[in-house]
Amino acid sequence: MKNYYIIDFDSTFTQVEALDELARISLTNNPDREKIYEEIERLTNLAMDGKISFRESLAGRILLLQANKTHLDLLVSHLKKKVSPSFNRNRSFFKEHSENTLIVSGGFKEFITPVVAPYHIKKDQIYANTFLFDEDDLIIGYDMDNPLSEEGGKVKLLKQLKLEGKIYGIGDGYSDFQLKESGLIETFYAFTENISRTSVTEKADHITPSFDEFLYVNDLPRAISYPKNRILCLIVGEVPEIASHILKRDGFSIRIKDTFEEKYTKDVGLLLLGNHVRVPNEQLERADKLKTIGYLGDCRGYISKEICNEKGIVVFDDKKGKSRNAEFIPRRMASFINNGDTDMSRNFPNLILPKLTKAHRLLHIHKNVPGVLAQINTIYAENEINILSQFLMTRGEIGYVVTDIQDAYDKKVLRQLKQVDNTIKFRILYK
After folding, report:
1. Which residues, including other chains, have CB under 8 Å from residue 38's CB and lie 6 or more apart?
2. What is the DSSP string of 11-61?
3. Phi/psi of residue 306, each to 5°?
4. CATH topology of domain 360-429
5. How buried is residue 348: exposed, middle or buried, by Cβ count under 10 Å (0-12/13-18/19+)?
6. Superfamily of domain 3-217 in the CATH hierarchy
7. DSSP states of 359-417 as a string?
8. What is the pTM of this model?
9. Which of 82, 138, 178, 238 is most solvent-facing, going by the fewest CB within 10 Å?
10. Are the C-beta atoms of 63 and 88 separated by less than 8 Å?
11. pLDDT confidence of residue 214
């Protein structure tokens, strides 16, 4: 059965509401522009939350725009820079699924088509409203015969299309949820990368903080191996706000707490600690998803290096108490998660890796005993894997092998690598 992907445009494919942005362009010289901006935004949100009809909202906003075709050209240039990052990095998905990806929006083709065209989305699979212009190219209205200009327009359109297959809907607004409510789509994903509307998320089948998340849960090809929004970063103790900001901006799911609460033990992936915060050994031993610890101080006596080594947890700390380390340490943690770098780690071999491009990076952490690299490379040889580059460093009890390979390989290779004698942790990266 064929799969179809129905994707909203405003605040989903792009980070912004296009008509709101058009208003900021067209009303630049209007002395009452701030009041008009607020009214346009109010009408947008009322419709998105399902509190007024879409047609009422649309008509009201267009009357306030005072826009023309020149303004639309400026809007298109602006929107091309505002494509949501997770859609932008997954261009290859759209190329591969151009036959079954549809943009369905209450926005307008005049600005949607040129923005999505570079993503291999076909013109005849873009469903949106169209403007009406007067002889001076001023926007005076829209085609009211288009079902997308009406309340419940997306439902009416899909009924007309009669798509046969499994249909997934991705969007941020009430009109997107209506597709699920109508029974026309299989699953509705509330997209929250740009805005989260409670009236939508509480009714969704799944909340997707990024397009990466949608692709991950549906086992579809994607640009990154694992969505960072799924990696929990716990921040404990006195940690400057800039540190949490760095990790949040990088896409991790952040929790800020006074203590390392027991309920986070099994799920925490990154742990950033203020000075003098102690991690109990029994908790550390059960933190099976924990990949890296950042400590804003000297971690000796507060974190067991032996347990971290046994579990393959990379530790970065601040032995000299430098103020810049409130920024430096979270960046080192993110660099390990994103690229595999262990430079300036307290307990791991210090390795700076080249940026990963068009390859899969396999990170193998193991006990520093003879023969591990030979076992790993035997697996690559037996599976005819093309190795692009390989790095090995050891430090004390830890060995760290990083191998970049081409992305075409049998997934059984990953299982075999995890089973190598003396393996501590194994991870795959691609982006």
Report:
1. none
2. IIIBSS-HHHHHHHHHTTT-TTHHHHHHHHHHHHHHHHTTSS-HHHHHHHH
3. -65, -45
4. Alpha-Beta Plaits (3.30.70)
5. buried
6. HAD superfamily/HAD-like (3.40.50.1000)
7. SEEEEEEEES-TTHHHHHHHHHHHTT--EEEEEEEEETTEEEEEEEE-S---THHHHHH
8. 0.84
9. 238
10. no
11. 97
What's the CA gap between 85 and 217, in Å, rounded? 18
Q: Domain 228-339 sits in which CATH superfamily?
A: NAD(P)-binding Rossmann-like Domain (3.40.50.720)
Q: Among 411, 406, 367, which residue's Cα sits nearest to residue 388?
A: 406
Mind giving me the DSSP string for 216-232?
HHTT---SSSS-GGGSE
Give the model confidence (pLDDT) of 243-290 as tens digits.
999 999 999 999 999 999 999 999 999 999 999 999 999 999 999 999
Same fold, 3-217 and 360-429: no
How many CA within 13 A on the CB side of residue 160? 11
pLDDT reported for residue 54: 83
Q: What does the pLDDT read at residue 320? A: 85
Residue type, 142: Y
Q: 64 CB contacts (<8 Å, ≥6 apart)?
A: 23, 36, 39, 40
pLDDT for 61: 87
Residue 392 in tokens: 């090995």
Longest distance between any two alpha carbons in the chain, whole Å = 80
Identity of the residue numbered 261? E
Residue type, 258: D
Q: Which residue stretches of the chain have pLDDT < 50? A: none
CA distance 231 to 311: 17
Q: Which two tokens stand for residue 330?
A: 């979270």
Instruction: Report pLDDT digits (tens) over 183-210.
Output: 999 999 999 999 999 999 999 999 999 9
Q: Where are the beta strands (DSSP E) in 258-386?
A: 268-273, 292-295, 314-317, 360-367
How many Å apart are CA 221 and CA 202, to the nearest integer?
28
Instruction: Determine the pLDDT at residue 319.
Output: 87
